């Protein structure tokens, strides 16, 4: 029986998950494929710690994995930019196929890695790098290839989604929800990259590159995190039938792409409405197929390892199989100010004439109010919030009017504005 | 530039959609693939009616398509069992690749068709046959191949889903909702196969065969239609936070498979909750990946044509690409009586002691009630309904107790029982 031998770079969460999957399901897979997939080498930081693999397989010397004769596929599960980038390049140079779950290195050095793959004739599989357990890149690049998919809205960051879900369902405040995510292993000690939209932006780069077959840079993505969202925002949204979700949007607008990551109010009845906790989902809009949604666990040891193994199986069955990707071809990307309804929260002190001041400024800019709610509990002059839902208007108009209201001194802090997804 | 030449059998809704897609997106596709896909022949019933294709391409003689030298791929879009089955066999025999959207012929003659495909070395592509525009078979058989997917619950019939959605959202009764579906082209003049679960059962056969790599027969699927559902069921379910959906279930239970099609109460917060109107969705549960959901249009001209074209593109790019399918290998399939909470509606006449009789019978069988609601409007003795939600119990117990209550003469018609999906 033929065999494919894996050299794993990094035996962390996903690497251990892969070893587990092969231990548990390897026999079944061998039977289905009439082909064996087994780990022969693994690079670790410290080879003295007891491991799941025999010590003869484990090394701290990258060359012992990347350039080993008994390795056919190098599985890069270290994450980060360096040395992941160099190791992938060396592996391709040594004639190995590569499978990786590393969105950061792909988003930043995609063109270089793909060129190396072409030069060596060896593939890079990277289904696991975007939304872990959801076979998303495969769906876009094969099942939907015959359609013109021109719009995507998704929940790409499980940590942010978990934090907002817990604030919504358990009434936690932001800090407590983040602490809970950390306790559950869903957020790093420093959760910044998850909650400020950077992680979602990396995934959005890859998704947009596959969807539109073009190169996208991190600086071309407008980013807004979830840090400013307070329980009152969650409650007010809820009272109007909305739930706040961390969304990412990619759409074609005339000759350019509009790429954005920000929290938004999503109606309960929307298909993204019940996408909670650490789950991810991607809603595509194609000319022929209409709406298609893909939902699942975006991260985690076993879902990600399963996606990695899916790529390996595909390469076993169809050695010439590739996901079409062209990160060298550049295109225009620009932020096209969108129009939508808006949720606005003005932190205020309860003073006579306050609501009139805010409402008048909005009216003067042609922004029409559908709902307004003042929560000014306590004595006159106490801190409170004025929340407003608007009719459809444009982003620049909202920016202008918020800046104007801030200058009048009517608010005690800058207003929060969130788009409403209808 | 190389070309793949299509011979289409049937220029109905999907066939015309395919011609449209190629006209509109053909140039783009040619550019992406460096390969041309074009229609050269089409079989129609009546070649005197004006058509979208030049008359030289259109014929009423199947041999002129199936055995034509200038056809590489035969695209079967006629539907039904015969002559679709014979034409597919002839096409494979003539060395053509086949792409089909015909779930009925695949569900019934899968083993024969696959054997012919193996014998000829030519593939059969059939992504379009299950849930039209959703690249589902591909996802299960490639992206999730490394996982053990052991459970599926989905909404596979768009017509039933549309009917129940309109009853729910517009307050229509069953007959009016069916008429609306017919008006919108979502239901046939005779909607029986859609509303009684047969269409969903055909799709479930194919899905289960791909998920579990085994043969499944139509008689192995327990079927229940949506015909008995009344507005009061929709309203009562709604008042408890549920929406009634037409679901299909496939799961592995010990050494057998349990396969079922029936309506069920789905919580609003469930991911299947917002799947409305003609949309389909499939929720898979894998050991490693956890829950994954695929959602989209399950039927319609362009979504289905897009899936057909997706298969053709895959065969252009990777001629040896196949969806693993083994409809010759049989396995045990048996209905395993499940446990769940139940919704029960007893059509009654308002008489003293009635509620006591029903409640007592339930109690004697150990069925515990969580909610009960009597709507006995009008004079004493008038027709009304008693609706009950139970704690978790088993199907045989419910069947027993309903039969017993019927015998007491307490009800004016057999009770309706629906499972609750929690």
Comma- or semicolon-separated keywords:
homodimer; 422 residues; alpha/beta; Rossmann fold; Dihydrodipicolinate Reductase, domain 2; Alpha-Beta Plaits; six-stranded parallel β-sheet
Give an overview of the whole structure.
Two copies of one chain form a homodimer. By secondary structure, chain A is an alpha/beta fold. Chain A has three domains: 123 residues, Rossmann fold (3-Layer(aba) Sandwich); 161 residues, Dihydrodipicolinate Reductase, domain 2; 82 residues, Alpha-Beta Plaits (2-Layer Sandwich), CATH 3.30.70.260. The first copy, chain A, contains 13 helices and 17 strands. In chain A, the strands form two sheets. In chain A, strands 7, 8, 9, 10, 11, 12, 13, 14, 15, 16 and 17 form an eleven-stranded mixed β-sheet that branches. A six-stranded parallel β-sheet of chain A has the order 3-2-1-4-5-6, sandwiched between helices. In chain A, helix 3 packs parallel to helix 4, helix 4 packs parallel to helix 9 and helix 6 crosses helix 7. The first copy, chain A, is elongated.
């Amino acid at each position: 029986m033929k065999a494919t031998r894996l050299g794993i770079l990094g035996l962390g969460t996903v690497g251990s998950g892969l070893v587990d999957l092969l231990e548990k399901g390897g026999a079944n897979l061998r039977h289905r494929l009439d082909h064996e997939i087994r780990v022969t080498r693994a690079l670790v930081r410290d080879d003295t710690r007891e491991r799941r693999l025999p010590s003869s397989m484990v090394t701290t010397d990258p060359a012992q994995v990347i350039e080993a004769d008994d390795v056919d596929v190098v599985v890069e599960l270290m994450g980060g930019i360096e040395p992941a980038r160099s190791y992938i390049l060396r592996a391709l140079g040594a004639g190995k196929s590569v499978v990786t779950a590393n969105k950061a290195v792909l988003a930043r050095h995609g063109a270089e890695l793909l060129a190396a793959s072409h030069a060596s004739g060896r593939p890079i599989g990277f289904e696991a790098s975007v939304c872990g357990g959801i076979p998303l890149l495969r769906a876009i690049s094969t099942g939907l290839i015959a359609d013109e998919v021109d719009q995507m809205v998704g929940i790409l960051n499980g940590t942010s989604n978990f934090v907002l879900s817990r604030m919504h369902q358990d009434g936690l405040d932001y800090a407590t929800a983040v602490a809970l995510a950390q306790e559950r292993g869903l957020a790093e000690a420093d959760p910044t990259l998850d909650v400020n939209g950077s992680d979602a932006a990396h995934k959005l780069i890859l998704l947009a590159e596959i969807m539109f077959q073009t190169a996208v840079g991190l600086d071309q993505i407008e980013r807004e995190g979830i840090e400013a969202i307070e329980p009152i925002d969650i409650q007010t949204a809820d009272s109007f039938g909305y739930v706040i979700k961390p969304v990412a949007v990619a759409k074609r607008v005339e000759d350019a792409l509009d790429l954005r990551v920000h929290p938004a109010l999503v109606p309960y009845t929307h298909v993204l409405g019940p996408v909670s906790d650490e789950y991810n989902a991607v809603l595509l809009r194609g000319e022929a197929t209409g709406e298609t949604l893909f939902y699942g666990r975006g991260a985690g040891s076993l879902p990600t390892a399963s996606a990695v193994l899916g790529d390996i199986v595909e390469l076993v069955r169809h050695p010439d199989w590739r996901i079409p990707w062209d990160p060298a071809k550049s295109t225009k990307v620009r932020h096209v100010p969108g129009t939508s309804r808006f949720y606005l929260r003005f932190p205020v002190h309860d003073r006579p004439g306050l609501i009139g001041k805010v409402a008048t400024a909005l009216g003067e800019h042609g922004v029409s109010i559908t709902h307004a709610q003042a929560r000014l509990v306590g004595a006159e002059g106490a801190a409170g919030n004025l929340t407003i839902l608007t009719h459809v208007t444009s982003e620049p108009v909202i920016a202008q009017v918020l800046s104007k209201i801030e200058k009048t001194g009517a608010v005690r802090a800058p207003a929060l504005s969130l788009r409403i997804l209808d």
